[in-house]
Amino acid sequence: MRLRRLLQSSRQMDAAKPSVIEPEALEDLIRALAARGFRVVGPTRRDGAIVYDDLDSAQDLPTGWTDEQAPGSYRLERREDEARFGYAVGPHSWKQFLMPARVRLWRASRNGEGFDVEEEPGPERPLALIGVRACELHAIAIQDRVLLGGRYADRDYAARREDTFVVAVNCFEPGGTCFCASMGTGPRVDAGYDLALTELLDGGHRLLAEPGSERGGEVLAELPRRPASQVDLDAAETATAGAAERMGRRLDTTDLRGLLARNLEHERWDEVAERCLTCGNCTLVCPTCFCTSVEEVTDLTGTAAERVRSWDSCFSLEYSYIHGGSVRPSARSRYRQWLTHKFGTWHDQFGSSGCVGCGRCIAWCPVGIDVTQELTAIRGGQDADD
Amino acid sequence: MQTIDEILREVPFFWGLESDHLELIAGCGANVAFKADDLLFRDGDPAETFYIVRHGSVALETFVPARGPFTIETLEEGEIIGWSWLFPPYRWHFDARALSLVRATAFDGACLRRKCGSDPRLGYELMTRFAQVVIERLQWTRMRLLDVYGYASAE
Amino acid sequence: MATPAPSELHAAPGAMAPRPFRVARRRRELRDTWTLELEPIGGDPLELEPGQFTMLYAFGIGEVPISVSGRIDGPLVHTVRAVGAVSRAICAARPGSVLGVRGPFGNAWPVGEAAGADVVVVAGGIGLAPLRPALYELLRRRGEYGEVALLYGSRTPADLLYRTELARLRGRFDLQVDVTVDSAEGGWRGKVGVVPKLVAGPRFDPASAVALVCGPEIMMHFTARALLERGLPPERIYLSMERNMRCGLGHCGHCQLGPTLICRDGPVYRYDELEQLMAVREL
After folding, report:
1. Which of B118, C84, C126, C248 falls 20 to 30 Å from B12 in CA-CA distance?
2. Domain ranges (residues) in chain A
């Protein structure tokens, strides 16, 4: 299955043929993918943020923009260059395409005493994701494990995930809230992509393009390009190494699972509960949060019914409702659930951490709660800001 | 036919008591029997006895106006009935009805109170044992207060 | 390159699509509880294990997780208490009407693993329903076990589930049965007291016995305590846990209990795994 191939290490792939393309060739890339029947989605500037949306052309890219992120703060700033990918991450993650916020799962209609169920067909076109960061690749792999790696595969996710073409980008501009280096998820991409781009600004604005799969190589072959020189390769290496050094945050991840399991009654939970609004923003922007709920929708005649799946958040009171009440009525318990799941019990349930260090939750928390700070406090250390 | 003394030695409630204390207590005891539906005692009556059930089942009941008798608890073989003899006003708080043929050993409360007066150590031994019973009954009663089976809408 | 072919997954029914099952029998158990016997409309009957549950669907209203409560080699049987919109609709489904079924999901009571030991089955209220399939299995393979005891209690005599069946079970010579109620109006000649109090009664060897417990969480907590006091180690006490459940597939996240997902790692848990989790409030 193509999925398995995508998840294999790209180093096994044709790494011998990295090329260099001009920024203008991104237009050719988008056209080539559209011509192959993909729905091309990627970054664009809208509503004061860099979001992910359908891309009609390379004009839609957030050329020359960057993001300034801090706890509870996200601002776009103009860059001095024309970098296409000169930002970190915005409020959107790729889960909005792979695991959309509202999806109809099936329709059913009455048939005598019984009913017939008609499952929703998959999307018309497979997705091509442009600008997937290393942390996001890991996030996608994490969601793959949750939704495809268990006893049951999520049918809708599998349909959307199948044949997804991934154009990854290596980060050269880490954000103020990024800590992928601590989580071991970046800034360099390592696997799960068809094509990896590294934007180089010094010595001529160009992009190093490395295929990560056979079809990635085929698409690359359609673009105007030249072979990459050692200078190009070294520049790319320097850029990503530099990014690793300039992370906005650091986190000591030593046995977080054990640490959290041992500290379920730590006083820090009371402290953060005084700030947390349980608004659930963190769960909305987090690329690995996968919780959903289902609702039944009927028409007035009662002969037709649908089941719709939508994003849910462990921060809502209804989430843990059973037998007349919520198991987690307090903000304290709900924040604890989220953090201990993300960094601790995710290991028990899915064999890895649930966090990829993208820092979205820190920027988009209205009160600026910083997970790296909370975890450091529970460990009993000082704040680990850079 | 067992003597009261022998009966006492078998009942876990009295384990750990010294021989002479057992004798003192036995001296206040007598074997009794009730037919099914006999009342052992009634709510409000003077409480001068406690029982150890040797066989059968006894229901502690209370009468709720317009609803009838309510069984608070049933006590079976080996269980103690009655601590009201230990504390003023020495009156029963519930009815006790035999649900079956009941054989029990009844202990004269007034007799025991006198003996405890002369021998405070005996009083202490009995008090700790009865406190244990009360605590256990309280635990079970509190559990029933939680009404664990009755919950509101689950959806 | 040609347009990628559509996924062949579209052909097979996904795990979120309910299968239609016809209500073959419907029987009122208690004032608010009904037992339904369901037959698949087309397709194979479900392969069941005692302790598992299905997601039962009332057309257009919703679905709820309900334990299997019949013989595992028989038709699909569910005992449902009407407490909300979905369960009320399920309880109202007359023979001939159709409900949706997904599953079965979850793990099983350790009936096989308990072979050679005494088994104590302790149920409170509707908790007897998820335990009944285990009891049937134990009785079907009676020779493999030592003492088998069933301890059961409910709120009042009117809330005793499967009462006729209980009376029949009581008549067996190879089964200890003890029943109690939390309170009773006059006329009840049985025991009145909480279920954990029954634990002191039956004959069994704590050195090797296995206990299967199901009921409201507090009742299970106190019952486990009483079993521990009788010398049963926590790794031989099994409880059935419940949380809000939406998918049964391990995808929606709702049924998390600490490091586990009840739909996947439960609902049957060993008490040594649970003891610490249950001690944390609002986990």
Report:
1. B118
2. 2-245, 256-379
| Residue B150 contacts C where some CB pair is shorter than 8 Å | yes
Task: Tell me, yes or no, if B137 comes closer than 8 A to chain C by beta carbon.
Answer: no
Name every residue whose Cβ is closer than 8 Å to that of residue A334 and which is 6 or more positions away in sequence: A276, A278, A314, A315, A319, A328
**Pair C123, C236 in one domain:** yes
pLDDT at C8 over 60: no
In a domain, residue C247? The reply is no
ipTM: 0.90
Instruction: Tell me which residue of A153, C195, A10 sits closest to B144, measured CA to CA.
Output: C195
Q: Which of B140, B149, B155 sits opposite C193 (nearest CB)?
A: B140
A330 pLDDT more than 90: yes
Residues whose CB is less than 8 angstroms from the CB of residue C144 and which lie 6 or more positions away in sequence, other chains included:
C115, C116
Summarize the confidence of residues A26-41 as an average pLDDT.
97
Query: What pTM was computed for the model?
Result: 0.89
Using the predicted structure, report yes or no on whether residue A308 has a pLDDT greater than 70. yes
A to B CB pairs, distance under 8 Å: 9
Range of the domain at C212: 119-240
Instruction: Count how many pairs of residues, chain B against chain C, have C-beta atoms within 8 Å.
Output: 80
Averaged confidence pLDDT in chain B = 89
Residue C7: inside a domain, yes or no?
A: no
Cβ distance of C219 and B148 shorter than 8 Å: yes
Domain co-membership, C146 together with C66: no
Instruction: Tell me the two tokens of residue C218.
Output: 């507090």
Question: Does A305 contact C at CB distance below 8 Å?
Answer: yes
Q: Which residues of C touch B (CB under 8 A)?
A: 62, 64, 83-87, 124-126, 154-155, 159, 180, 182-186, 188-194, 196-197, 215-216, 218-219, 222
- Average pLDDT score over residue span B96-120: 93
Q: Check whether residue C123 and residue C187 sit in a common domain.
A: yes
Q: How many structural domains are present in chain B?
A: 1
What is the pLDDT, as a whole number, of residue A11? 44
Q: Looking at chain A, which subunits does it touch, using at least 3 CB pairs closer than 8 Å as the criterion?
A: B, C
What is the predicted pLDDT for the residue at C52?
97
